[in-house]
Automatic annotation (TrEMBL):
Homology family: Belongs to the LRRC3 family.
Name of the protein in its database record: Leucine-rich repeat-containing protein 3
Domain of life: Eukaryota
UniProt domain LRRNT: residue ranges: 15-51
One GO term describing the cellular component: plasma membrane
Spans traversing the lipid bilayer: 188-209
Record localization: Membrane
Major place of residence: membrane
Membrane topology summary: Single-pass membrane protein
Native source organism of the sequence: Podilymbus podiceps
Amino acid sequence: QAFFCLLLCIPWGSSCPPSCQCTEQAGAKAVLCSSRHLEEIPKGIPKDAVFLKLDANSITRIPSNAFRHLSHLEELDLSRNAIEKIDRAAFKGVAAGLRTLDLSSNRIRSIPKEALMALSAKLRLANNPWHCECALQEVLWEARLDPDSVQDITCHTAPREEYVGKPLLQVLDAGVNFCSVHQRTTDVAMFIAMFGWFTMVIVYVICYVRHNREDACKHVDYLKSLPSSQGHAE
């Protein structure tokens, strides 16, 4: 916070979004857009921005390639917004250099694991109404989470009522594996689909055989109804 306060004192000479304040110190360029009633990512953010603060706004979605042109970005603060949806390619283009990503205190229930798995940044995901599922579990296991905020990743909803209200880490430590449940559900769905397909094939074969049998019987009856060759000879 003290660093950003210092940055406030040094204005930029380059362009800056109208709703933001742009500052610089020792070559580190910051774009400060906190508490500006923004509903989306502002346009015109300078390409050489290193710090971007968009906290305490009303942003509801992070679309694909939202920060792709910000190749120098190291710290991104999106906390205390109303974010509900994050696209799979939301952080494409900044994944390699980003060191800190704050998504805490939003309205995020689920997030595509592809959006976060490519990041090496320290993630803050606390205080969101998370639905505890396999994708969130994989993020917790494989992403680089801020250790100070992991305990605040709580199950707002879950497959079983007993997990609701508990920290996800506590649920996983108790031996719960949401991914195995997901796998079993997928296996059952595949079995049902295969059984349905097999049943359709059997029904088709039975109908086909019956139809051919009926045609054969009609043909035999027809032949029997014809005058015999002996009768013609007489």
